[in-house]
Amino acid sequence: MDLSLIEALGKVNLVIMEEKIRTLSMIFANHFTAQLDTVKLRTGRTTERMKIDHPEAAAVIPFLDEERILMVRQWRYAIGQDTLEIPAGKADPGEDLEICARRELLEETGYEPARVIHLFSYFPAIGYSNEVIRIYAASGLKRLSDAQDMDEIASVETLSLHEAHDLMLEGRIRDGKTVIGLAWFQLLKDRGKIPSDFFS
Amino acid sequence: MDLSLIEALGKVNLVIMEEKIRTLSMIFANHFTAQLDTVKLRTGRTTERMKIDHPEAAAVIPFLDEERILMVRQWRYAIGQDTLEIPAGKADPGEDLEICARRELLEETGYEPARVIHLFSYFPAIGYSNEVIRIYAASGLKRLSDAQDMDEIASVETLSLHEAHDLMLEGRIRDGKTVIGLAWFQLLKDRGKIPSDFFS
Fold it and tell me: How far apart are the CA of B113 and the nearest CA of chain A, in angstroms?
Protein backbone atom coordinates (compact mmCIF):
# COMPACT_ATOMS: atom_id res chain seq x y z
CA MET A 1 0.00 0.00 0.00
CA ASP A 2 1.52 3.34 -0.96
CA LEU A 3 1.92 6.12 1.55
CA SER A 4 -0.69 8.45 0.06
CA LEU A 5 -3.35 5.73 0.37
CA ILE A 6 -2.38 5.04 3.99
CA GLU A 7 -2.53 8.78 4.61
CA ALA A 8 -5.98 8.95 2.95
CA LEU A 9 -7.26 6.03 5.05
CA GLY A 10 -5.89 7.74 8.14
CA LYS A 11 -7.92 10.84 7.30
CA VAL A 12 -11.03 8.76 6.67
CA ASN A 13 -10.61 7.11 10.08
CA LEU A 14 -10.23 10.47 11.74
CA VAL A 15 -13.51 11.64 10.22
CA ILE A 16 -15.70 8.55 10.69
CA MET A 17 -16.49 8.93 14.34
CA GLU A 18 -19.67 6.95 14.82
CA GLU A 19 -20.29 3.67 13.06
CA LYS A 20 -23.64 1.98 12.79
CA ILE A 21 -23.77 -1.50 14.34
CA ARG A 22 -27.41 -2.27 13.57
CA THR A 23 -30.89 -0.79 13.29
CA LEU A 24 -33.06 -1.71 16.29
CA SER A 25 -36.41 -0.39 15.06
CA MET A 26 -37.87 1.74 12.32
CA ILE A 27 -41.05 3.69 11.55
CA PHE A 28 -42.13 4.40 7.96
CA ALA A 29 -44.17 7.60 7.69
CA ASN A 30 -45.61 8.93 4.42
CA HIS A 31 -42.63 11.02 3.43
CA PHE A 32 -39.86 10.05 5.81
CA THR A 33 -38.57 7.43 8.25
CA ALA A 34 -37.42 7.34 11.86
CA GLN A 35 -34.98 4.68 12.98
CA LEU A 36 -33.11 3.80 16.14
CA ASP A 37 -29.58 2.47 15.56
CA THR A 38 -26.94 1.03 17.85
CA VAL A 39 -23.67 2.83 17.06
CA LYS A 40 -20.03 2.59 18.06
CA LEU A 41 -18.71 5.94 19.35
CA ARG A 42 -15.22 7.30 18.64
CA THR A 43 -14.11 6.07 22.08
CA GLY A 44 -15.23 2.49 21.30
CA ARG A 45 -18.25 2.68 23.59
CA THR A 46 -21.65 1.85 22.11
CA THR A 47 -24.84 3.88 22.37
CA GLU A 48 -28.15 4.37 20.57
CA ARG A 49 -28.88 7.11 18.04
CA MET A 50 -32.24 8.17 16.63
CA LYS A 51 -32.16 9.20 12.98
CA ILE A 52 -34.96 10.82 11.02
CA ASP A 53 -34.37 10.45 7.28
CA HIS A 54 -36.22 13.51 5.97
CA PRO A 55 -36.53 15.10 2.51
CA GLU A 56 -35.08 18.58 2.04
CA ALA A 57 -37.48 21.42 2.76
CA ALA A 58 -37.94 25.01 1.61
CA ALA A 59 -39.21 28.02 3.55
CA VAL A 60 -39.90 31.49 2.17
CA ILE A 61 -40.37 34.99 3.62
CA PRO A 62 -42.99 36.57 1.31
CA PHE A 63 -42.57 40.38 1.11
CA LEU A 64 -45.65 42.37 0.06
CA ASP A 65 -43.36 45.41 0.08
CA GLU A 66 -40.19 46.50 1.93
CA GLU A 67 -41.98 46.58 5.27
CA ARG A 68 -44.78 44.00 5.17
CA ILE A 69 -44.60 40.20 5.03
CA LEU A 70 -47.12 37.35 4.89
CA MET A 71 -47.19 34.65 7.53
CA VAL A 72 -49.41 31.60 7.97
CA ARG A 73 -51.10 30.37 11.10
CA GLN A 74 -51.29 26.60 11.41
CA TRP A 75 -51.83 23.88 13.96
CA ARG A 76 -48.68 22.00 14.90
CA TYR A 77 -49.51 18.52 16.10
CA ALA A 78 -46.07 17.82 17.58
CA ILE A 79 -46.30 20.76 20.02
CA GLY A 80 -50.11 20.87 20.41
CA GLN A 81 -50.32 24.59 19.58
CA ASP A 82 -51.07 26.81 16.65
CA THR A 83 -48.15 28.92 15.48
CA LEU A 84 -47.35 31.84 13.21
CA GLU A 85 -44.74 30.84 10.63
CA ILE A 86 -43.35 31.67 7.22
CA PRO A 87 -44.70 29.35 4.47
CA ALA A 88 -42.69 26.14 4.14
CA GLY A 89 -42.86 22.50 3.17
CA LYS A 90 -41.08 19.35 2.13
CA ALA A 91 -39.76 19.02 -1.44
CA ASP A 92 -41.38 16.39 -3.64
CA PRO A 93 -38.93 13.72 -4.88
CA GLY A 94 -36.55 15.38 -7.38
CA GLU A 95 -38.14 18.81 -6.97
CA ASP A 96 -35.84 21.85 -7.12
CA LEU A 97 -35.91 23.67 -3.78
CA GLU A 98 -36.69 27.10 -5.25
CA ILE A 99 -39.61 25.55 -7.17
CA CYS A 100 -40.71 23.96 -3.89
CA ALA A 101 -40.59 27.37 -2.14
CA ARG A 102 -42.71 28.92 -4.94
CA ARG A 103 -45.20 26.00 -4.81
CA GLU A 104 -45.58 26.14 -1.02
CA LEU A 105 -46.04 29.92 -1.16
CA LEU A 106 -48.82 29.56 -3.75
CA GLU A 107 -50.51 26.63 -1.96
CA GLU A 108 -50.41 28.25 1.48
CA THR A 109 -51.14 31.90 0.59
CA GLY A 110 -52.41 32.08 -3.03
CA TYR A 111 -49.53 34.38 -4.06
CA GLU A 112 -46.94 33.96 -6.85
CA PRO A 113 -43.61 35.85 -6.53
CA ALA A 114 -41.71 37.69 -9.31
CA ARG A 115 -38.36 37.41 -7.47
CA VAL A 116 -36.98 34.72 -5.15
CA ILE A 117 -33.54 34.89 -3.51
CA HIS A 118 -31.81 32.26 -1.40
CA LEU A 119 -30.95 33.46 2.11
CA PHE A 120 -29.57 30.50 4.03
CA SER A 121 -29.61 26.69 4.36
CA TYR A 122 -29.27 24.87 7.66
CA PHE A 123 -29.86 21.69 9.68
CA PRO A 124 -32.77 22.35 12.07
CA ALA A 125 -32.35 19.29 14.33
CA ILE A 126 -28.84 17.98 13.80
CA GLY A 127 -29.06 15.69 16.84
CA TYR A 128 -31.60 13.33 15.27
CA SER A 129 -32.61 14.47 11.77
CA ASN A 130 -30.86 14.91 8.42
CA GLU A 131 -33.42 17.51 7.31
CA VAL A 132 -32.00 20.56 5.53
CA ILE A 133 -34.17 23.68 5.27
CA ARG A 134 -33.38 26.17 2.50
CA ILE A 135 -34.77 29.61 3.35
CA TYR A 136 -35.72 32.08 0.60
CA ALA A 137 -37.10 35.62 0.45
CA ALA A 138 -39.72 36.40 -2.21
CA SER A 139 -40.95 39.74 -3.57
CA GLY A 140 -43.12 41.07 -6.40
CA LEU A 141 -46.07 39.05 -5.08
CA LYS A 142 -49.13 38.67 -7.31
CA ARG A 143 -52.34 37.21 -5.95
CA LEU A 144 -53.39 34.28 -8.13
CA SER A 145 -56.13 32.76 -6.00
CA ASP A 146 -57.93 32.85 -2.67
CA ALA A 147 -57.37 29.16 -2.35
CA GLN A 148 -55.21 28.06 0.53
CA ASP A 149 -54.19 24.66 1.75
CA MET A 150 -57.27 24.29 3.98
CA ASP A 151 -55.95 21.07 5.54
CA GLU A 152 -52.94 22.84 7.02
CA ILE A 153 -53.42 26.61 7.05
CA ALA A 154 -55.88 28.31 9.43
CA SER A 155 -55.22 31.86 8.20
CA VAL A 156 -52.83 34.03 6.20
CA GLU A 157 -51.74 37.14 8.10
CA THR A 158 -49.98 40.35 7.09
CA LEU A 159 -47.39 41.71 9.53
CA SER A 160 -44.81 44.45 9.38
CA LEU A 161 -41.20 43.28 9.85
CA HIS A 162 -41.25 45.41 12.99
CA GLU A 163 -44.29 43.51 14.36
CA ALA A 164 -42.67 40.17 13.51
CA HIS A 165 -39.47 41.17 15.34
CA ASP A 166 -41.52 42.28 18.35
CA LEU A 167 -43.34 38.91 18.39
CA MET A 168 -39.96 37.13 18.32
CA LEU A 169 -38.60 39.32 21.15
CA GLU A 170 -41.76 38.56 23.18
CA GLY A 171 -41.28 34.83 22.51
CA ARG A 172 -44.58 34.59 20.61
CA ILE A 173 -42.86 33.53 17.37
CA ARG A 174 -40.72 30.53 18.31
CA ASP A 175 -40.57 28.48 15.12
CA GLY A 176 -36.92 27.87 14.23
CA LYS A 177 -37.04 28.41 10.44
CA THR A 178 -39.10 31.60 10.90
CA VAL A 179 -36.66 32.99 13.48
CA ILE A 180 -33.56 32.09 11.44
CA GLY A 181 -35.16 33.50 8.29
CA LEU A 182 -36.17 36.83 9.84
CA ALA A 183 -32.98 37.25 11.90
CA TRP A 184 -30.76 36.34 8.94
CA PHE A 185 -32.64 38.66 6.56
CA GLN A 186 -32.18 41.51 9.07
CA LEU A 187 -28.45 40.80 9.41
CA LEU A 188 -28.00 40.76 5.61
CA LYS A 189 -30.07 43.98 5.31
CA ASP A 190 -28.09 45.71 8.10
CA ARG A 191 -24.91 44.83 6.19
CA GLY A 192 -26.25 46.00 2.79
CA LYS A 193 -26.29 42.45 1.40
CA ILE A 194 -29.88 42.32 0.08
CA PRO A 195 -29.78 43.05 -3.71
CA SER A 196 -30.87 46.66 -4.35
CA ASP A 197 -33.47 45.57 -6.93
CA PHE A 198 -35.13 43.02 -4.62
CA PHE A 199 -37.98 45.38 -3.68
CA SER A 200 -38.19 47.24 -7.02
CA MET B 1 -74.93 26.29 29.96
CA ASP B 2 -74.11 29.98 30.34
CA LEU B 3 -72.94 32.07 27.44
CA SER B 4 -69.37 32.56 28.66
CA LEU B 5 -68.88 28.77 28.82
CA ILE B 6 -70.31 28.32 25.31
CA GLU B 7 -67.98 31.08 24.15
CA ALA B 8 -65.03 29.38 25.87
CA LEU B 9 -65.90 26.02 24.28
CA GLY B 10 -66.17 27.76 20.91
CA LYS B 11 -62.65 29.09 21.36
CA VAL B 12 -61.35 25.68 22.36
CA ASN B 13 -62.91 24.16 19.24
CA LEU B 14 -61.35 26.81 17.07
CA VAL B 15 -57.93 26.02 18.51
CA ILE B 16 -57.99 22.20 18.51
CA MET B 17 -57.23 21.62 14.89
CA GLU B 18 -55.75 18.14 14.74
CA GLU B 19 -57.05 15.30 16.87
CA LYS B 20 -55.23 12.04 17.43
CA ILE B 21 -57.15 8.96 16.28
CA ARG B 22 -54.54 6.37 17.25
CA THR B 23 -50.81 5.64 17.47
CA LEU B 24 -49.66 3.34 14.67
CA SER B 25 -46.11 2.68 15.86
CA MET B 26 -43.60 3.89 18.40
CA ILE B 27 -39.85 3.78 19.06
CA PHE B 28 -38.44 4.15 22.58
CA ALA B 29 -34.93 5.64 22.56
CA ASN B 30 -32.90 6.27 25.73
CA HIS B 31 -34.14 9.80 26.37
CA PHE B 32 -37.05 10.30 24.01
CA THR B 33 -39.67 8.59 21.85
CA ALA B 34 -40.80 8.77 18.22
CA GLN B 35 -44.35 7.84 17.32
CA LEU B 36 -46.51 7.82 14.21
CA ASP B 37 -50.13 8.80 14.82
CA THR B 38 -53.22 8.86 12.62
CA VAL B 39 -54.86 12.26 13.12
CA LYS B 40 -58.04 14.01 12.02
CA LEU B 41 -57.28 17.35 10.32
CA ARG B 42 -59.38 20.51 10.76
CA THR B 43 -61.10 19.75 7.44
CA GLY B 44 -62.18 16.29 8.67
CA ARG B 45 -59.67 14.46 6.46
CA THR B 46 -57.26 12.06 8.14
CA THR B 47 -53.49 11.88 7.74
CA GLU B 48 -50.43 10.60 9.58
CA ARG B 49 -48.18 12.72 11.81
CA MET B 50 -44.78 11.84 13.22
CA LYS B 51 -44.13 13.12 16.72
CA ILE B 52 -40.83 13.11 18.59
CA ASP B 53 -41.39 13.54 22.33
CA HIS B 54 -38.10 15.14 23.34
CA PRO B 55 -36.82 16.66 26.61
CA GLU B 56 -36.04 20.38 26.65
CA ALA B 57 -32.48 21.25 25.71
CA ALA B 58 -30.04 24.07 26.46
CA ALA B 59 -27.35 25.60 24.25
CA VAL B 60 -24.78 28.20 25.25
CA ILE B 61 -22.47 30.64 23.45
CA PRO B 62 -19.35 30.71 25.66
CA PHE B 63 -17.53 34.09 25.43
CA LEU B 64 -13.83 34.10 26.35
CA ASP B 65 -14.01 37.88 25.92
CA GLU B 66 -16.08 40.36 23.87
CA GLU B 67 -14.66 39.04 20.59
CA ARG B 68 -13.80 35.35 21.07
CA ILE B 69 -16.10 32.37 21.63
CA LEU B 70 -15.61 28.63 22.16
CA MET B 71 -17.17 26.09 19.84
CA VAL B 72 -17.07 22.29 19.83
CA ARG B 73 -16.48 19.97 16.90
CA GLN B 74 -18.46 16.76 17.02
CA TRP B 75 -19.64 13.95 14.81
CA ARG B 76 -23.34 14.10 13.96
CA TYR B 77 -24.65 10.64 13.18
CA ALA B 78 -27.95 11.84 11.67
CA ILE B 79 -26.17 13.83 8.93
CA GLY B 80 -22.99 11.73 8.66
CA GLN B 81 -20.67 14.75 9.08
CA ASP B 82 -18.70 16.47 11.77
CA THR B 83 -19.89 19.98 12.60
CA LEU B 84 -18.82 23.07 14.52
CA GLU B 85 -21.44 24.02 17.09
CA ILE B 86 -22.01 25.85 20.34
CA PRO B 87 -22.10 23.49 23.37
CA ALA B 88 -25.57 22.02 23.99
CA GLY B 89 -27.45 19.06 25.34
CA LYS B 90 -30.66 17.61 26.69
CA ALA B 91 -31.81 18.48 30.21
CA ASP B 92 -31.89 15.66 32.75
CA PRO B 93 -35.37 15.00 34.20
CA GLY B 94 -36.31 17.96 36.42
CA GLU B 95 -33.08 19.84 35.68
CA ASP B 96 -33.27 23.64 35.41
CA LEU B 97 -32.29 24.72 31.89
CA GLU B 98 -29.66 27.25 32.99
CA ILE B 99 -28.06 24.54 35.16
CA CYS B 100 -28.17 22.27 32.12
CA ALA B 101 -26.39 24.92 30.01
CA ARG B 102 -23.68 25.28 32.69
CA ARG B 103 -23.28 21.49 32.98
CA GLU B 104 -23.00 20.97 29.22
CA LEU B 105 -20.48 23.82 28.95
CA LEU B 106 -18.32 22.25 31.65
CA GLU B 107 -18.63 18.70 30.26
CA GLU B 108 -17.91 19.70 26.67
CA THR B 109 -15.22 22.38 27.18
CA GLY B 110 -13.94 22.20 30.77
CA TYR B 111 -15.00 25.83 31.47
CA GLU B 112 -17.26 27.25 34.18
CA PRO B 113 -18.96 30.63 33.56
CA ALA B 114 -19.41 33.52 36.02
CA ARG B 115 -22.39 34.98 34.13
CA VAL B 116 -25.11 33.29 32.06
CA ILE B 117 -27.91 35.20 30.31
CA HIS B 118 -30.89 33.77 28.44
CA LEU B 119 -31.05 34.87 24.79
CA PHE B 120 -33.92 33.01 23.17
CA SER B 121 -36.05 29.84 23.25
CA TYR B 122 -37.46 28.17 20.17
CA PHE B 123 -38.85 25.02 18.54
CA PRO B 124 -36.16 23.65 16.19
CA ALA B 125 -38.32 21.14 14.27
CA ILE B 126 -41.93 22.10 14.82
CA GLY B 127 -43.14 19.78 12.05
CA TYR B 128 -42.33 16.59 13.95
CA SER B 129 -40.73 17.33 17.35
CA ASN B 130 -41.81 19.05 20.56
CA GLU B 131 -38.19 19.85 21.47
CA VAL B 132 -37.58 23.34 22.85
CA ILE B 133 -34.02 24.70 22.85
CA ARG B 134 -33.16 27.49 25.29
CA ILE B 135 -30.11 29.42 24.13
CA TYR B 136 -27.85 31.21 26.60
CA ALA B 137 -24.70 33.35 26.42
CA ALA B 138 -22.00 32.81 29.05
CA SER B 139 -19.06 35.00 30.08
CA GLY B 140 -16.44 35.16 32.82
CA LEU B 141 -15.18 31.71 31.84
CA LYS B 142 -12.81 29.92 34.20
CA ARG B 143 -11.02 26.77 33.11
CA LEU B 144 -11.73 24.02 35.64
CA SER B 145 -10.39 20.98 33.77
CA ASP B 146 -8.98 19.68 30.53
CA ALA B 147 -11.56 16.96 30.62
CA GLN B 148 -14.04 16.96 27.79
CA ASP B 149 -16.83 14.60 26.93
CA MET B 150 -14.58 12.33 24.86
CA ASP B 151 -17.54 10.26 23.64
CA GLU B 152 -19.07 13.24 21.86
CA ILE B 153 -16.55 16.05 21.42
CA ALA B 154 -13.64 15.78 18.96
CA SER B 155 -12.14 19.20 19.76
CA VAL B 156 -12.82 22.54 21.41
CA GLU B 157 -12.02 25.50 19.15
CA THR B 158 -11.65 29.23 19.74
CA LEU B 159 -13.09 31.52 17.07
CA SER B 160 -13.67 35.24 16.84
CA LEU B 161 -17.31 36.27 16.38
CA HIS B 162 -16.17 37.63 13.01
CA GLU B 163 -14.80 34.22 11.97
CA ALA B 164 -17.99 32.48 13.13
CA HIS B 165 -20.13 34.91 11.10
CA ASP B 166 -17.91 34.32 8.04
CA LEU B 167 -18.31 30.54 8.44
CA MET B 168 -22.10 31.00 8.60
CA LEU B 169 -22.08 33.25 5.50
CA GLU B 170 -19.99 30.62 3.67
CA GLY B 171 -22.46 27.91 4.74
CA ARG B 172 -19.82 26.07 6.76
CA ILE B 173 -21.71 26.52 10.03
CA ARG B 174 -25.20 25.18 9.35
CA ASP B 175 -26.37 23.93 12.75
CA GLY B 176 -29.70 25.60 13.57
CA LYS B 177 -29.17 26.39 17.28
CA THR B 178 -25.68 27.79 16.55
CA VAL B 179 -26.99 30.01 13.74
CA ILE B 180 -29.99 31.26 15.75
CA GLY B 181 -27.76 31.85 18.79
CA LEU B 182 -25.11 33.83 16.92
CA ALA B 183 -27.58 35.75 14.72
CA TRP B 184 -29.82 36.58 17.69
CA PHE B 185 -26.88 37.68 19.86
CA GLN B 186 -25.74 39.99 17.04
CA LEU B 187 -29.24 41.48 16.66
CA LEU B 188 -29.49 42.11 20.42
CA LYS B 189 -25.96 43.61 20.45
CA ASP B 190 -26.72 45.86 17.43
CA ARG B 191 -29.79 47.12 19.31
CA GLY B 192 -27.91 47.69 22.59
CA LYS B 193 -29.80 44.91 24.38
CA ILE B 194 -26.87 42.93 25.81
CA PRO B 195 -26.41 44.01 29.49
CA SER B 196 -23.46 46.43 29.76
CA ASP B 197 -21.83 44.35 32.52
CA PHE B 198 -21.99 41.06 30.58
CA PHE B 199 -18.34 41.29 29.48
CA SER B 200 -17.01 43.06 32.58
Answer: 25
